[in-house]
């Protein structure tokens, strides 16, 4: 593994530090950069932003890097005032060092970064080390999602039925496809049935198939989804909406491996792994007599819960960046970074529609943004930012009023703490604590 060094500016002063690290260095001149200049086994990327603000140019390179590559940024302290630079650091950097560069600190930082990359590669989880631009792989920056996909990995090779529970848009179907892709059935079909979207009269034939002439309009025999999933996985989405009659038929298939097509006399078999998903509480549906308890037990071999987006905030920025890239590519637009206020708004919004809502907001923002960065307004989340500012200014107002009251009390009480505290109806201890907080002195 070799680190990638992007210097090109004032790298001479770094030569000592770099020569002590026994890794092959690879320099990239950002002006003549193209994707092929990134070595495939690179572990670390050092970006020198001092004196030159090359964020716009670097953005392209950073997006070409595997996310397993740690990025260390060198900046001048004053650049911490530049929002473009702080946004870049917040989004991409693993660490940063400010000028004057302390060689010891940089050496430790580089050594640590390379060591960590190696460790991660050695213990690579299939979902943890994905190239971010591989849009097929789930974003799993949060601990809870990493844990969830480790569970997926363990459960996938078994044929145990899985019940995936979670709010709408949390990634239930995504988990189902991964369970299939990581199973020995991966070369077989993955067939989805949305139990909530089919007309009650059609679902029987949709699931189990029909024979020619089974009903008016059945001009030829047709295979059902179970037969189509033979050798693979059948994903029953919104299982809570499955009509009662079909629950019986499905239960028979799960228990005996047999089913009847509509109008067919001979029971049929299929080798299918069942994965079901629901956003409703099946226990409630059972209590209300709408869902069969025996079917519930059959489906619920293992439960996987997909968490709400607001319960895994560490994924939000990664997901937003993923979808910015996807839709910018799709619409042929330049890939723009999120502004700082956009990041704040994304992190503070409650996301009732989960990842699907995030996708919609980001897609609109990619199209609507006419500035260098994607703003909270583009995401239609400006009100979240306003609320934050109101909350901040309310705190400032409260603090100012508190300080003024203390100052007046000290003045009127002529510096006698006991008296001043009694004017404000607070204890002596609280009075001292507040004086300390506002950096006030007795007269
Ligand atoms: N961790 C993730 N990384 C990348 N994309 C994700 C992730 N989680 C969800 N998505 C995307 O979000 C969208 C919604 O996910 P999905 O359809 O799997 O949700 P769902 O829970 O099945 O929703 P519903 O209950 O409404 O059918 C999909 O485009 C999916 O690819």
Mean pLDDT: 84
- Structural class by helix and strand composition: alpha/beta
SS elements, strand count: 11
Number of domains: 3
Number of helices: 17
Which CATH architecture of the largest domain is right? Answer: 3-Layer(aba) Sandwich
Biggest sheet descriptor = 5 strands, parallel
Task: Please report the first level of CATH classification, the CATH class of the largest domain.
Answer: Alpha Beta
Overall morphology: extended
Task: Indicate the multimeric state.
Answer: single chain
User: For the largest beta sheet, what order do the strands appear in spatially?
Assistant: 6-7-10-5-11
CATH superfamily of the largest domain: P-loop containing nucleotide triphosphate hydrolases
| Unreliable sequence segments | 124-133
Ligand list: adenosine-5'-triphosphate
* Rg from Cα: 30 Å
CATH level-3 fold name of the largest domain: Rossmann fold
Cα distance spanning the termini: 66 Å
- Indicate the percent of residues in helices: 40-55%
Task: Give the percentage of residues in beta strands.
Answer: 5-15%
Pfam families: AAA_lid_14, Sigma54_activat, VpsR
Keywords: ATP-binding, DNA-binding, Nucleotide-binding, Transcription, Transcription regulation
InterPro entries: AAA+_ATPase, AAA_lid_NorR, CheY-like_superfamily, Homeodomain-like_sf, P-loop_NTPase, Sigma_54_int, Sigma_54_int_dom_ATP-bd_1, Sigma_54_int_dom_ATP-bd_2
Protein name: Sigma-54-dependent Fis family transcriptional regulator
